[in-house]
Structure formats: structure tokens, C-alpha cells
Fold each of these.
Amino acid sequence: MPELCRFGGMIIYLFFEDKGQHNKPHVHVRYGDYNASIGVDGELLAGELPHKQYKIVVGWLTYNEEKVYEAWNLAVRGKQFKKIPPMK
């Protein structure tokens, strides 16, 4: 699972060619024992995260929306994408 970004104890990643389970562009997030799939639009698609971490990820997605869509479009075609730096 290729990593897109890492910050605040969370790992955000994309699967290559991940179109089957969720139709909309999304990321996967790991935080400790939590796992979630979150749409680029901020919708929780599967799993769970603590509320604080969920809000942080949604803010990161909003701030990096263009870069995340670019990475998503590459990943679903099985191509490499660049990591996105965490917000400072």
C-alpha cells in the first residue's frame, strides 16, 4: 500500500487500481488500531477514526484536494504518485 502522507501518528495511503470496493476517490487512513476509508470530499466510507483525527484528515484532504486527486488518478491506473508533505 503506497504511502501518500504521514503525520500526527496517522498514515494516509492509496491502493493501486483500487476501484472495486469504493467508487469515489478516497484515501485509506491508519491510526493505531483504527482504519478508515475517507472520500476526498471528507465522507467516511468505511471503518472508523477518533473524531479529532477524522477532522484533521478532512482538513488535510481539503487543503491538498488537487494533489490528492492527481495521486488518485495515477494510482487507479497503476502508476506511481508523489508523496504529499504534511501541513506545517
Amino acid sequence: MSSFPKPRNNRLTHEEYFALEQAEDQRYEYLNGEVFAMAGGSERHAMIGSNGLIALGNALRSRPCRVYSPDMKLQIATRDKFCYPDIQVLCESGRRHQNYVEGPTLVVEVLSDSTESYDRGMKFEHYRAIPELRHYLLLSQDRAHAELFTRNENGQWFFNEATGMEAAVYLSTWEIELPLAEIYRNLEFGITEDPLPVERDRSCVGTE
């Protein structure tokens, strides 16, 4: 998400939380009865997310998995939490409900300045409470760079990273690679997204 969620005052039941989202047509994170309004992301955030969604969908097309956009809510029951990962992959060990899913194998978050510490800290702590989770992937917005945390069969987490458009992320659960060139397709770095107009210095312009 583009900014850390802002808390509302009242504690809600799950049913009240679902009703609130439906009534306001707004996404909220939920944690132990508190809800937090989620702000929209930048154009670059959206591009990385959609590229990653397409890349994962293509790579897992023949697998018994579903790849979800940030519109799908995730429940982490042991933390009494509902949230909206940028991308999540649900396979045979996961569970689907009408309004949310549980037990994804992979969760992906696109980092931003305002949420990076949250994504690396408390959010990752909450995600680690998902028994089925095997991969947590963080994608930078500022460069072609991916950080992958992988949990082995003994419950230990290992870290790998990939940098540059020639690199790829290896997901051992499915033995597939995600090229960063696909995740960062149509993105340019080092260029201001909304450049200010340059005023021409007319003092040096000659006249005929």
C-alpha cells in the first residue's frame, strides 16, 4: 500500500468489518477489532504489481494455484487480522471463502517509502504466522530489485535477492524463475514521473 493505514476508533466484529467495507466501498485492514483505511498506490506501484501478477499467472498456469490481485482479502486467523497483499498465490493447501482466502503459499508486497518498515517488520511477522506460507517477496519501486524470504520444511527462513533486469527470482516450491525484466517491464528508473516544465531563458535569444 502507498501509506501506513490510519486507525478508526471503534472496535468491530468481523461481520461489522465486512459490512463497513461494503457500505463504504473502501478497503480496510483489520487487526483485533480495529480497522485501518488503506490509501491508493502510485502509478509505478500499480505497474509493478500488475506485471508481477501477469508473470506469476503465466508461470503457474499449469499448477493447481490461484494468483490474486490486491482486491482479494487475506485472513490470518491466529493474529485476528484481515489484510490485502499486493499479490498472493493460493494453492492446494489454501482455503477459499466468499470474502477472503486463507493459507497462501506466496505473498508479494511492493515497497514504498511510507510502508517499507511495516512490510519488513510487523507485517512480515504476521505473515510468518501463516503455516502454509513458503515465500515472502518484496519488490522495490526505485530499481529492479527483489528480496525473497523462503521457509524450508523445518520452519527456517532463508534470504536471497536479485538485482538488475537480467536477474530472476527463483521460487523453489514450484521450481520456476520470475525474470525481473518481466516484473519491471515498461518501467524506467532515474526519471522523475512528473517533471516540472523548464522555463526558457529568453535573455540569450537573438532577434532578426
Amino acid sequence: MLTKRDLLKASAAMGGLAFGLGTGGEASAQMVDQLQLFVPAAPGGGWDQTARTMEQVLKTEKLINTVQITNVPGAGGAVGLPQFVNQWKGRQNALMVGGLVMVGALIANKAPVKITQTVPIARLTGEFEVLVVPADSPLKTAKDFAAAMKADPKKTSVAGGSAGGTDHIMLGMIGRALGVPAKDISYVAYAGGGPALAAILGGHVAAGISGFGEFGEQIKAGKLRALAISAGTRQPEIDVPTLKEQGIDVELFNWRGVFAPPGTAGAQRDALIALVEKMAGSASWKDQLKKRDWTPILLTGDAFATYIQEENDRITAILKDLGLAS
């Protein structure tokens, strides 16, 4: 059993993480002992992988003793978020993992709660999108794709994930940048990367959009041609130009981050931010980023809160153009 001295030492080592769950040593013990991670998605997906990687790193770096993960899947986070906002309100040792997909899903599903009702703590990682065509496609560059889309957008069909998801949002952004009316964009939504890949390779669509990791092996094997990535700058060890350098002013990261429940403020919020910053700066976290091909895009506190509001506004506008939001 931990003594009061042990608890105080642990609290100091965690940069002041222990706070206000009750009084005195009880507060410190609960916070140091367990962090609760809420994942509004099924086990095995990207958000769940993020949560379990956080658990591993936090334990390895001795920043926390135990982590409890709760999965509540459904509708890109639209099922889980109301539970986090309403039932987890006031929990002082809790974080929810979410990301860009949730922003779009909440808007498209006209969810009664918004991501802006949470307390943004940190943006952690991002994966850029890639625009691909079959290897034998006459489209050699993103400029070729842009010309084809402008000439006949309905024939320039593009496969991707669920309607309103990151892939669909990216095509909407490309259309907007090119001046192509959203109603003319031809997007074919698939339940997952496998069916979308089959459609692209089978020539059922002109192109495809997904996270780079989804198509990476097929690109390396020469079955798909990567026309452009949605990163702001060229990525190390990836010989694919960006959309921006080919005259299409679009930048998009499928980002993931963590949020605290409503009511988290003051020293409590600061301690959670400090915990995540310490985790993100650790050697264990950097090793996991490299292993999983995750790009670090850390943004915390007020800056992240501002980013969330801007992202919500931007995605709302795109989905309105696509007829998926009112």
C-alpha cells in the first residue's frame, strides 16, 4: 500500500497531475493510480490504437500506474460523445480520444452534442491523405486529375470511406479549390479500405482517396500511382508531391487528439495538459510514432481549443457544400 510520502513523491514526479478529486492524499492516490480513457469507437480502430498506445507509454514512462479504457462505438463517435459529455462530466482523471472523423460525423449525423462541448487538451498525431489512381491510368499527376475533374466531374469518380468522412471531406476541399460545384462531385463511399481498393484496381472509379497507410503497400507494389498527398510539405522518405505544390490549395491531416469532460478547468486542466505533453516528449512515445508511421503534430491547451473551433467551422462549411449538413 502506498504511503502518504509515496503519493507525494509520485505527484511531484508527474508535474502536478494529482488534483481535486477529493481532499488530501485521497485525491492524489486516485489520480496517480488510474487514468480513464474513453474511446468512442470499437476496439482495433485508429482511436483505440491511440488509446492503447497511450496506455503503454504512460506505464513505461511511469507517469501513471493503471489506465482503464472504455469503448463505446457507433457513427464515428456520435454515439459515444453524448455519454462522455453527460455521464463523464466532472470526472477529473478522464480523457476521450477523438479526431477529425468525429468532427465530420457529428455534423453529418446532426448530433445533439458538439465536440466543442468538451475541453480540448491536446492534438497528438496526424495522417495525411493520398490521392491515387490505378497504375495504368492516363492521369499522371494531380494537375491531370484537376483538369479531368474540371472538364467532367461526374465522370471523374473517386472512391473513399464513409460519406462525410475524411476522404469525402478532402474531395470536397479539392472541388472547392478547383471551383467545381459540390453537387457535381462524384464520390463513391465504401465501408472500408478493402472495398474501396478493389473498386480502384478494378477500374470502377477514376481515383481513390484514403490515409496514406491504407494504400501504402499497393503504391510500393506499383499497383497504384500516388498523385499527391495532403500534407503541407513533402514528407521524408515519400517521393510524392503535395497537392499544394501542384497548384491545388488543400492541406488536410486526419488528426487524433484527446479531450477532457465538461467541467475540467484550472489546475485540473493544466495537469492533464502537462501529463500529455510529458508523454508526447518521451522516448517511448517517439518510438511508437516511428513504429506506427504516425506524424507528431502536438498542439495543446488554448491553441488546440482555437484549432478545434476553426476545424468545426471549416468542416461544417465543406459538408454544407456537399449537402451533408444544414
Amino acid sequence: MTIHNLETTNSVLNNFISEVRNLSTQKDAMRFRRNIERIGEILSYELSKKLSYSYKNVVSPLGVKKTSISQKNLVLCSILRAGLPLHQGILNYFDSIENAFISAYRKHTSDTDFEIIVEYLASPSLDQKILILADPMLATGSSLVAVHDALKKLGNIKQIHIVSVIASTEGIAYVDKFFPKNTHLWVATIDKKLDENGYIVPGLGDAGDLAYGTKL
């Protein structure tokens, strides 16, 4: 798996990352969602540089310009519900992309042990498509592996791009074991630690709760 960690280059992206981590800024759910969306936009721009392009003649009022246009064989799949703001950010940059949604949640068998349950999936065919998987928090990597197992039944996926806001080094290593070697990970920042419950440290907390409110 090829890892693209945008934190290694200074940019305005770091401002958005600092705000989604910040306890005081997190109290504004609308701003939190918008910052995740903006992070998705920046990651999408960088991802777009690795796609295939073909030339098209574009006619302006004064002439014709040969322009390279990205090919339209993309499917964007977000993991509900935390992935929705990130999904919108990616969607802002890929106008004609097809969309898929999948649920994946932790079902705890003890205070520290859990399994990933996938219950809902709505997706077009993935045969010979480039799949963009949006998951803001790549913690243990278990959710992404479970999602991939469900999605690969929908066709022969040409290539996978994972888009995350924060990833752990442990989660990246786990995902790398199960995803195809030509997979790309686009991430805004990488944290080294997971706590005893499998949450990223320092991370930012529960992205779904911060975006949409606490759940039962």
C-alpha cells in the first residue's frame, strides 16, 4: 500500500486538523463538519493527481483548447455515519462520481474486545471501477477490512483509494495486510498510538458523535 501523508508538507490543511482536534472548537458541530469536509476536498485534490486522464477538445467563445479530463469510472463509498462530512468533501471535487454507502460498527463482546458488524450496503457495480473509501478515523483498521470484504463481492475492483482524516500506525499496518498492493491511502495526519479501547491517541474523539450528536 502506498501512503500519502499530507502532514509532512506544511499547508492550510494543518489549520483544519488543529481545529477538529481542539476541544473548544469541537463544541461547534457545524464547524467540525465543515472542517472535515474541507479536509476531504484537499485530500481529493491530491488524490486526483494519481487518476487516469484523457484529452478532450473544449470549445470556448474564442477558440478550442485541448484539455486533459479525468476518466469517469469512480465510485465513492463512505462508512456511515462518521464518513458523511468527508463524503461531501470528496463529492465536491468529483462531480460525476457514483456513490455507495455502507454501515460498519463495533459490537463489543467485552469492555475492550469487539467485532465489526456490517448491516447496510447500497452500491452500484464495482466491476472495473476505481473505489474511493471514505473513513475519517482509521483506528484499528478492522472496519475497513470488513467493509472491503463486503464490497469486493460487487465486482472486480480496479483500484482502491482510502481517504482518512487521522490514521494510526497500527491501523495502517493492519489494513496493509488485507488490501491489494496497489491500494493508496490518503491521510491528513498519522498518530502513533491506540488506547486500550482501540481509539486513536491523541486523535480527536468520536467523529460521528462530534458531527451529529451522541448516540445511545
